[in-house]
Amino acid sequence: MKAPLLLTLLLLAVNVAAFQDDLVQAAHLQTQQNVRYDPSYFSIDYPNGDVPADIGVCTDVVIRAYRALGEDLQLRVHEDMAANFDDYPSRRIWGLQRPDTNIDHRRVPNLRRYFERQGASLPVSNNPDNYQAGDLVTWMLPGNLPHIGIVVDELDPATGAPLIVHNMGRGPELENILFAYPIDGHYRYAPQTHAD
């Protein structure tokens, strides 16, 4: 491998690791906020729109963590959906005919598809060592309910599994749920626009 290419790859790895570290810290900060679970539809600004700070769902944990680092998933998902609407499940699942900047990024299936389209998919595994701090994990909860959370830098002392920051109805919290439900997605999304 030529030296310039190797240096480029090393710098990219360092940038991804730094972004993942910052994302973990942004996730941890959310557990200190008083947020009640509310999946209601809201009309919000675009871009950089958000529901009221005292409410949220699982996707808002991810959206707010990325936004704290300057990455607007509302904008990113909308732009990709506007150009590739039929690649997203919105028509099939919700019967939509076009993108909706108020809700698209707040739906787990759309985030999953966006991360897949960005080449951020990783294998799903039963090995806790395969999940790094800053990774995103999605599950299918009982009742066919999709869920998403952020892997953080703490391990459960009993199992060795990495802990997750997520919101399953009690607000953002840190919990050992990695293997509590069937995992259906594993992603490492570190946008190249992040500046350290």
Question: Your description of this structure?
Answer:
The protein has 196 residues and is an alpha+beta fold. It has one domain: endopeptidase fold (from Nostoc punctiforme), CATH 3.90.1720.10. A hairpin with a 3-residue loop joins strand 3 and strand 4. Helix 1 packs across helix 2. It is globular, with a radius of gyration of 17 Å. The model has no long low-confidence stretch (mean pLDDT 93).
Q: Summarize this, please?
A:
This protein is of the alpha+beta class and 196 residues long. Helix content is 33%, strand content 17%.
Give short descriptive properties of this protein.
single chain; 196 residues; alpha+beta; endopeptidase fold (from Nostoc punctiforme); two-stranded parallel ribbon; 5 helices; 7 strands; 17% strand; globular
Topology:
Elements: H1 3-30, E1 36-37, E2 55-56, H2 58-68, H3 73-83, H4 90-94, H5 108-117, E3 136-141, E4 145-155, E5 162-166, E6 173-175, E7 183-187
Parallel strand pairs: 1-2
Antiparallel strand pairs: 3-4, 3-7, 4-5, 5-6
Helix pairs in contact: 1-2
